[in-house]
Write a structure and sequence with these properties.
The chain has eight helices and no strands. With about 210 residues, the chain is mainly α. The protein has one domain. The chain is globular.
């Protein structure tokens, strides 16, 4: 693999992982939960969410294959199941059916960084399932390095969005963020459809 090929793959993976993390839904949820909270606390919470998401996703990417082996799940079956789950998430984003009515006490916000803000709001079951498949399909060290760099970059981008959430809200407004969330849903629909088609095709023609 040449440097140019590696860079192209890293950028493609970064974009895919970025949208898999549903950035604008995460941003909208973050703004809802932290309404009325001072900026310093929001920024500390954003950093903790990013670190928690990075830790969980990297663990799943590297060790998810062992979970699949323990339960005897094939990669094609897992790909199909993850695709269906991702499709449901995408549809809920497009139609705005994900529940954002959350009643959390503001004084306990930092306790929410890992659960539910990092998992499952940022890295949901569909995202983790996709990472498990990617981990199984990336046997080469070079491929794993590229995926890890792309994944860390995508998570860092989410963290930056949350860190500057107040500025983004002022620039775009809640309505624009909601529209971007729906566009994210459309992109996820395409990714999910591809996963389902490939998985079903492999299962159907498997010996």
């Amino acid at each position: 693999m040449t440097i140019l090929q590696g860079l192209h793959l890293a950028i493609a993976l970064y974009l895919k992982l970025f949208f898999l993390l549903t950035p604008f839904f995460v941003l909208s949820t973050f703004l809802t939960i932290t309404a009325g909270v001072d900026t310093a606390l929001k920024q500390r919470l954003a950093i903790r969410i990013a670190l928690g998401t990075a830790g969980v996703t990297l663990i799943i990417f590297f060790f998810g294959v062992w979970i699949m082996k323990i339960f005897g799940i094939t990669v094609d079956a897992f790909r199909t199941g993850s695709g269906v789950l991702l499709l449901l998430v995408a549809v809920s984003l497009v139609y705005g059916t994900q529940n954002q009515k959350m009643d959390f006490k503001k004084e306990n916000l930092m306790d929410l960084a890992i659960v539910p803000l990092a998992v499952p709001i940022t890295a949901g079951p569909a995202t983790l399932g996709t990472l498990m498949v990617m981990g199984l399909e990336t046997p080469l060290v070079s491929g794993k390095i590229i995926t890890v760099v792309s994944l860390v970059g995508a998570v860092a981008s989410i963290g930056v969005m949350l860190f500057y959430s107040e500025r983004i809200e002022k620039m775009l407004g809640r309505a624009s963020i909601s529209i971007l969330s729906k566009i994210t849903g459309l992109i996820l629909c395409a990714i999910a459809a591809q996963m389902i088609v490939i998985g079903v095709r492999q299962l159907w023609f498997a010996p």
